[in-house]
Amino acid sequence: LAYVLMIHDDWTISLTIESIKNKLLDRFYSIYKTAAECFCMSDNMVEYYEKHTGRKGVVLPPLGQEPVTLNQDRRRTQFLQMGYGGSLHGNYVNNFINTCHALDRLGGKMTAYTNVSLEHLKGAGLKSDNIEINGFVSSKELLQRLINMDALYLPMDFSEERKLNMILAFPSKVPDYVMLKKPFFVHAPVYSSVVKWASSPGH
């Protein structure tokens, strides 16, 4: 029976017992080699698995949802308005706070749709008051709200322990961001999949 394999993320990051991780990797590589087709979320992922299996996969481009009608309706302001939609956890929180502080020095503001509260960010070191925090909304609603931003924030983790994950993984928010046709502020290590994608011709 033929099967197609689709890989979205670095699934090994949650495995801490090396012996179990190696056994699962061996099994995964065997499945990867024999699939009718292997779809990966980034060029880095294709290259990594080809190195370990000899099998070249296919990159799935960041395609958005069905076209929706978006109404851009706001007056131009004198300051930069940056938007973000996604979870904040671990090192992402500090990176987000540092970006807000940098924006504040430029007179800019951040509007975020995320899982953390303003109180949580202040407890983690946020000093500026240039941020508006909102809860998660549907993908369609997020597009409508972010259409009025000047730029979109796209972070990844800089920590060494998450390096492989940043090399292989690709942010799931990119398809929605692409539909808005806004500039991205990519806050990510140079080796990450999203930097490679953003640096390629046409992006």
General description of the model:
With 203 residues, the protein is an alpha/beta fold. Helix content is 38%, strand content 16%. The chain has 8 helices and 8 strands; from the N terminus they run βαβαββαβαβαβααβα. The strands form 2 sheets. It has a 5-stranded parallel beta sheet with strand order 6-5-4-7-8, with helices on both faces. The protein has a 3-stranded parallel beta sheet with strand order 1-2-3. β4, α3 and β5 (109-113) form a beta-alpha-beta unit. The longest helix is centred in the N-terminal third of the chain and has 17 residues, at 18-34. It is globular and about 55 Å long.
What key attributes describe this structure?
alpha/beta, 203 residues
Listing every helix as H and every strand as E from the N terminus to the C terminus, the arrangement reads EHEHEEHEHEHEHHEH
Overall structural class, as computed from helix and strand content, comes to alpha/beta
What's the number of extended β-strand segments? Answer: 8
Kindly, what is the distance between the CA atoms of the first and last residues, rounded to a whole number of angstroms? Answer: 38 Å
Number of helices: 8
Beta-strand share of residues: 15-25%
